[in-house]
Amino acid sequence: MSQHSLSEALVGVFNRVFQAAEATILCGGAAEPYYEPGAPSVIYFREDFYRSALHEVAHWCVAGPVRRGLPDYGYWYVPDGRNAEQQSAFCSVEVKPQAIEALFCEALDLTFAVSVDNLTVDANCPEITHFKAAVDRQIMRFRQQGLPDRALRFKKALALLAVER
Questions:
Q1: Domain ranges in the chain?
Q2: CA 30, 138, 37 angle in degrees (round to 5)?
Q3: Helix/strand/coil (H, E, C) string of the chain?
Q4: 147 phi and psi angles, rounded to 5 deg
Q5: pTM for the complete prediction?
Q6: Tens-digit pLDDT profile for residues 44-53
Q7: Cis, peptide link before residue 40, omega less than 30° from 0
């Protein structure tokens, strides 16, 4: 299945599961990922990148009702080239979403790799190693304690999609 076909399938699965139940839709083709609360709320992901779709859905699954009422969940975003303090703050809010994204990838039998979203960080630096370990620990916690409800519902729907592929 091509990247475009998979991203279209993800949109279909997400919207089938959550459009009526949560008044939220998934939409590709965006220049940048963004969450827009409304009626319905819209999760935008980059172009037709299925990993972007999975990542943005993971953020939505982590966000509580207050954050889901705020544009982009009320988070700040500093683009590529963050300093060490900014990168540390970025990683601290990315552990749970990336762990959920990893489990979504697993359901679809896709390869997952952590992302620090910063091209100025060396792929072998200790910060990435520590971040990957934190994501791995969170994956284990989710395996032991269970996923948040919306993440679990989406993962189950993805597993059905994987069977169809």
A1: 3-164
A2: 30
A3: CCHHHHHHHHHHHHHHHHHHHHCEEEEEEECCCEEECCCCEEEEEECCCHHHHHHHHHHHHHCCCCHHHCHHHHCCCCCCCCCHHHHHHHHHHHHHHHHHHHHHHHHHCCCCCCCCCCCCCCCCCHHHHHHHHHHHHHHHHHHHHCCCHHHHHHHHHHHHHHHHC
A4: -85, 160
A5: 0.92
A6: 999 999 999 9
A7: yes
